[in-house]
Design a protein that fits this description.
The complex is a heterotrimer of chains A (about 375), B (about 325) and C (about 350). Chain A is of the alpha/beta class and about 375 residues long. Chain A has one domain: Rossmann fold, CATH 3.40.50. In chain A, strands 6-7-8-3-9-10-12-11 form an eight-stranded mixed beta sheet, with helices on both faces. A four-stranded antiparallel beta sheet of chain A has the order 2-1-4-5, covered by helices on one side. By secondary structure, chain B is mainly α. The radius of gyration of chain B is 24 Å and the shape is elongated. Chain B starts with a helix and ends in a 7-residue tail after the last helix. With about 350 residues, chain C is of the alpha/beta class. Chain C folds into two domains: about 230 residues, Rossmann fold (3-Layer(aba) Sandwich), CATH 3.40.50; about 90 residues, no CATH class. Helices cover about 30% and strands about 25% of the residues of chain C. Chain C contains ten helices and twelve strands. Classes of the chains: A alpha/beta (about 375), B mainly alpha (about 325), C alpha/beta (about 350). The interface between A and B is medium-sized, with 30 and 20 residues. The complex binds adenosine-5'-triphosphate (ATP), adenosine-5'-diphosphate, iron/sulfur cluster (2 copies) and magnesium ion (MG) (2 copies). Chain C: Keywords: ATP-binding, Nucleotide-binding, Transport. Chain C: One of its GO terms (biological process) is peptide transport. Chain C: Belongs to the ABC transporter superfamily. Chain C: One of its GO terms (molecular function) is ATP hydrolysis activity.
């Protein structure tokens, strides 16, 4: 069992979440108060070509049991300075799709089609030695479990320095200076001492900060954070989310935040993409998707979560289980679990895959559902249940 | 650290002592009579037999014999054979019943042979074995990987001494492709030392390399699927750095564990090897002295073997702590 | 928010009188060995250090707190999977804290535990029927030959297909496995179930299914729950009474609406304000956030006085020297206690406003 030395605890006590000014004596009296401002507006407010553009991405894994279709025709884009949250149940293809952006899939065991463009350059089909130059440089990834994602046998400093030197031909000393800078930036107190320590000597929150330091060491334009706080406690989660937010403000990078926690989405995301069985089923700004959702699966998710603030009505779970990716149901993938499919005329829900269409005929908020009167059903039936 | 060394020393000494007692006890429990063996069968008079017994102190109580022996290691002993005094200096392990030479001296000439053999073995299995295993892990599922793994399976199902005998018979005697086993001290002529040992090394090494390739493959396959390997790839490291810098270091840990457990087995493997290639090592010595009930030599060999064992285990622990910072020497 | 009273709140008042389970000053100190210089020092992890609470029949108490604060250890002591270092566990008035295994048998039946991880808590080599009927046999609860009927009845009760009794755990999904774990606990008709993070490993939609199941069981069978979770939303949903733990101690306890609506302890306030909340998106003004800095100190060598003082923004000198008792505060309503020298309610921490 690793225990931080007593003096260390003093560090962390007076230390501050990164990005925030160090608390002076007076500030320490009151709680530090942070409110996150939301960026309003459309999916791509500036109108320029977004930094990351994913188009019609499919990822398939041929296995002994058959072909696993983990991602089926996914499209989205993220401009610099904005955060896109990808939400969905486990197995919906969130991680697989973002690993494709990093080119991390095993080539021999994965079939990827479609297009992924980073600042205009195509990633799909790029040879390994070209991909290596992109990974960790223009795009960085922060993984779910900082405990298992850091190498247990190398010091934290060594791992960050290595990440820098892969993409910069600099001496060890220069890289070390940079690593110390990063540790400081992410709010790790006493960087010089921490530099020499091993991951097991860090707490969970500190490890995730170290992971973030490692990811950001090369000033990436895009950060993919795959459930960065799922393994952490709420108070630490709040620290890490603040950190990501502040770093984004400072460096203006694009963030793809993968999560299954709608609360985190509400607090962090500018845009939201809801995934179900490898497909995007709803896509729009956070406002649109969370406050005016237009797809029965999104409704189901919202109705399933007991919130800290909501009333105590009975939860409305989505019945059944997500489908097997070996054989998706025909028509709408959600139809076996959808309580609204009877309202669609004919058997369209079970025969015809709904397209991803603008919810009100035009505009950027899209959803994949045959229902005609989504808005009125939501307002009349779902919204009241959400309280 | 100090605490660790002290504790290890105590446990090492007790291991050695227990081994000695066990050997001693085993020797006397078995229906053996060294005096009779020395005396011979035909012209052995009762008188001569008793004299031999007295000279060798075999007539004294067993506990006393053992105490004298153990004390001798630390303070030396003086033997009296028919009025002739013989000084046995520290560390005294007695005189061979058979040849009357001091056991310490006999061991001194034999030990380097066995150590050379085992060291070569360790180097071979920990380099070639681990390397082949890592390659197979990286290319798992391919034809080469499967061929390698099935060949190791076949290899491990054939007893070691058969493999060793066959190679020695076919490759050094019938078709002399490889030099015959022989021993020249390294200080005398390193080239000859190497040439004489290369065949035994290959035999003991290759046979066991297959085992080590299997262990390393298994451990590397597991390591390569760890999250931190994915992190390493996400940093933009090349495949080679990922495998040999990030994965190998963790992958080695279980292999070293097995190596630690395997040391005793490799010593007994050395006995066969020495016999087959007729190398003047400890293994041959112990086999010879078992045939002649030469108790002091047997005890001496067992003693040295257990010391080697304990030392190697210590080395393995140190290796552990060098590889894994989470293991503190405690 | 009080106008939609749930069914589960309507527990018969008569039963609520005498506590079914009384926990008094429960402590669990795990000895650990650490090398220090030449010798060794014996230290202890103060995993739980003086926890007391009451649980009435049919009630549900939530235990919340950060990882490592001693929630599971408390649960494991109550079910006597661990023997407490000190303290009492009074079940219907009888202290079971120090009972020997044989004397414990009858109580084991009454006190059941459901674990967090639906993957590792079921034996993969046993059929579902075997898993559920083992406790039936151990406690002689059914006649020979009637076992299967009872197993199928239980499977149906937890919402699984009774036909699937011959399957193995790996043929079920996470949520279904958790149902099997619940069925196993139900088999012996317990009066108390300790649910240790029963839904933490499940996806939201599945989580809601299991939560509803637990709620039904509580309502229909009158089982009392100690519900351990770190998800504040889940606890608010399920529990009438909530205890907040920090470093092995309860720092605040009270009726749900008091804890969530007017928390008095700074730690509770921080915890609530840190929980990401969907409310922010639906036009509710962003809530005030309290950000704790640093991590929970080590339970081997906890801070003197108030254990929270190393992260508390209200800490004064007295906090380092005097341990604040868990007691009612001037502004508390009935049954609401907090352990803080400077407790005062703060009402606007969750984005709820209606
Ligand atoms: N057998 C043990 N030996 C030593 N320490 C232990 C042991 N079991 C638990 N602990 C320690 O006791 C403390 C409380 O552990 P416990 O499992 O009760 O926490 P918890 O509140 O359930 O946390 P989580 O939310 O992570 O499940 C922790 O610091 C833990 O490391
Ligand atoms: N290497 C692989 N081989 C086969 N199937 C895979 C592989 N990796 C992921 N999958 C499957 O792809 C689906 C999507 O996985 P993932 O993206 O990790 O889900 P999540 O949305 O939880 O991140 C899952 O059903 C998973 O089992
Ligand atoms: S298309 Fe049909 S089945 Fe799919 S979500 Fe809409 S109503 Fe439900
Ligand atoms: S007693 Fe002091 S340190 Fe503890 S919570 Fe209250 S104010 Fe903070
Ligand atoms: Mg994932
Ligand atoms: Mg726990």
């Amino acid at each position: 069992m690793s225990t931080p030395a007593p003096e260390d605890r003093k560090d962390t006590m007076v230390g501050t979440a990164a990005g925030e000014p160090a608390p002076d004596a007076a500030a320490k009296r009151g709680p530090s108060i942070a409110t996150r401002e939301k960026r309003q507006g459309t999916l791509n407010p500036s109108g320029e070509t977004p930094y990351l553009v994913v188009e019609d991405l499919t990822v398939k894994f041929p296995t002994a049991d058959g072909v696993v279709s983990a991602v089926n025709g996914l499209s989205y884009s993220v401009p610099l300075g904005r955060t896109l949250a990808i939400v969905g149940e486990s197995g919906s293809g969130k991680s697989v799709s973002s690993m494709a952006v990093m080119g991390l899939h095993d080539r021999k065991r994965t079939k990827i089609t479609g297009s992924i463009r980073l600042g205009g350059d195509e990633i799909v089909g790029l040879p390994e030695n070209e991909l290596m130059k992109v990974r960790g440089d223009a795009v960085a990834m922060v993984f779910q479990d900082p405990q298992s994602s850091l190498h247990p046998l190398y010091t934290v400093g060594n791992q960050i320095t290595e990440a820098y030197r892969v993409h910069h031909k600099v001496s060890k000393d220069v890289a070390k200076k940079r690593a110390l800078e990063m540790l400081d930036l992410v709010g790790i107190p006493n960087p010089i001492r921490r530099f020499k320590q091993y991951p097991h000597e860090f707490s969970g929150g500190m490890r995730q900060r170290a992971m973030i330091a490692m990811g950001l060491v090369n000033d990436p334009k895009l950060v993919i954070a795959d459930e960065p706080t799922t393994a952490l406690d709420v108070t630490v989660q709040a620290q890490i989310l603040d950190l990501l937010n502040n770093l984004q403000k400072e460096f203006g990078s694009a963030i793809v935040l993968i999560t299954h926690d709608l609360g985190v989405v509400a607090e962090m995301a500018d845009d939201v993409l809801v995934m179900y069985a490898g497909r995007c089923v709803e896509y729009g700004t956070a406002e649109d998707v969370l406050a005016r959702p237009r797809m029965p699966y999104t409704w189901g998710l919202l109705e399933s979560i007991p919130t800290v603030s909501a009333a105590n009505e009975r939860l409305q779970p989505i019945k059944g289980l997500p489908p097997s990716l070996l054989s998706l149901p025909s028509g709408c993938s959600f139809n076996p679990r959808c309580p609204y499919k009877e309202r669609v005329k004919g058997e369209r829900c079970t025969t015809e895959l709904p397209e991803l269409l603008p919810v009100d005929g035009a505009g950027a908020h899209t959803s994949r559902c045959h229902l005609h009167d989504k808005a009125s059903i939501y307002e009349a039936e779902v919204a009241p249940r959400l309280g | 650290m100090l605490y660790f060394v002290a504790r290890r020393l105590v446990s090492a000494l007790s291991v050695v002592l227990v081994t000695l007692i066990a050997t001693f006890a085993l020797f006397f429990v078995a229906p053996t009579d060294p005096a009779a063996a020395i005396c011979g069968e035909r012209n052995c008079t009762m008188e001569r037999y008793n004299e031999i017994k007295a000279n060798l102190h075999l007539d004294r109580p067993k506990v006393q014999q053992f105490a004298e022996y153990t004390a001798g290691i630390f303070v030396g002993r003086t033997f009296e054979t028919s009025g002739v005094k013989q000084e046995c200096t520290v560390p005294c392990l007695g005189f061979s019943f058979k040849s009357d030479r001091p056991v310490t001296e006999m061991l001194k000439t034999r030990l380097p042979v066995t150590v050379s053999l085992v060291a070569g073995y360790a180097v071979l299995v920990l380099t070639i074995g681990v390397f082949v295993g890592s390659m197979a892990a990286k290319r798992r599922g391919t034809l080469g990987d499967r061929a390698l793994m099935s060949s190791t399976l076949i290899m491990s199902s054939v007893p070691y001494y058969i493999v060793a005998l066959m190679i020695s018979l076919y490759l050094t005697i019938l078709y002399p492709i490889l030099p015959r086993g022989s021993y020249t001290p390294i200080s005398e002529n390193p080239g000859k030392w190497f040439a004489g040992l290369i065949t035994p090394w290959l035999v003991i090494g290759i046979y066991n390399c297959t085992q080590y390739a299997r262990y390393s493959r298994g451990s590397m396959v597991e390591t390569l699927s760890e999250d931190y390997i994915r992190t390493a790839r996400a940093k933009g490291l090349s495949d080679r750095s990922v495998t040999y810098k990030h994965a190998l270091r963790s992958g080695l840990i279980p292999v070293i564990t097995i190596f630690g457990l395997d040391i005793a087995a490799s010593l007994s493997g050395a006995i066969f090897t020495e016999r087959i290639f007729d190398l003047p090592g400890l293994g041959n010595l112990v086999l010879q002295s078992l045939e002649t009930y030469d108790l002091p030599v047997i005890m001496g060999t067992v003693l040295i073997a257990s010391v080697v064992l304990v030392a190697m285990n210590f080395l393995v622990d140190v290796m552990y702590s060098l590889i894994d910072p989470r293991v503190r020497l405690s | 928010m009080s106008d939609n009273v749930r069914m589960v709140d309507a527990v018969p008042a008569a039963q609520a009188g005498t506590p079914l389970l009384q926990v008094r000053d429960l402590k669990m100190h795990f000895p650990i060995k650490e090398a220090a210089g030449l010798g060794r020092t014996k230290k202890v992890v103060q995993a739980v250090d003086g926890v007391s609470f009451d649980l009435s029949a049919g009630a549900s108490l939530g235990l919340v707190g950060e990882s490592g604060c001693g929630k599971s250890t408390t649960g494991r002591m109550i079910t006597r999977l661990l023997t407490p270092t000190a303290g009492q566990i009074l079940f219907k008035g009888k202290d079971i804290a120090k009972l020997k295994e044989r004397e414990l048998r009858p109580f084991r039946r009454q006190l059941q535990i459901v674990f967090q991880d639906p993957y590792s808590s079921l034996n993969p080599r046993q059929t579902v029927s075997n898993i559920i009927s083992t406790p039936l046999r151990v406690h002689n609860l059914v006649k020979k030959g009637k076992e299967l009927d009872r197993v199928q009845e239980l499977l149906e009760r937890v919402g699984l297909n009774p036909e699937h009794h011959n399957r193995y755990p790996n043929e079920f999904s996470g949520g279904q496995r958790q149902r099997i774990g619940i069925a196993r606990a139900l088999a012996v008709e317990p009066e108390v179930i300790i649910a240790d993070e029963p839904v933490s490993a499940l996806d939201v939609s599945i989580q809601a299914q299991v939560m509803n199941l637990l709620e039904d069981l509580r309502r229909d069978l009158g089982i009392a729950f100690v519900f351990i979770a770190h998800d504040l939303g889940v606890v608010r949903h399920f529990c009438d009474e909530v205890a907040v733990m920090y470093l092995g101690k309860i720092v605040e306890q009270g009726p749900r609406d008091q804890i969530y609506g007017a928390p008095q302890h700074p730690y509770t306030q921080a915890l609530l304000s840190a929980a990401p909340d969907l409310g922010t998106i639906r036009g509710v003004p962003p809530k005030e956030r309290i950000r704790l800095v640093g991590d929970v100190p080590s339970p081997i060598d906890p801070p003197s006085g108030c254990r929270f003082r190393t992260r508390c923004w209200k800490a004064e000198d007295i906090c380092a020297t005097q341990e604040p008792p868990l007691e009612p505060k001037p502004l508390s309503t009935a049954g609401h206690v907090a352990a803080c020298h400077f407790a005062e309610p703060k009402v606007d921490l969750t984005a709820a406003s209606a």
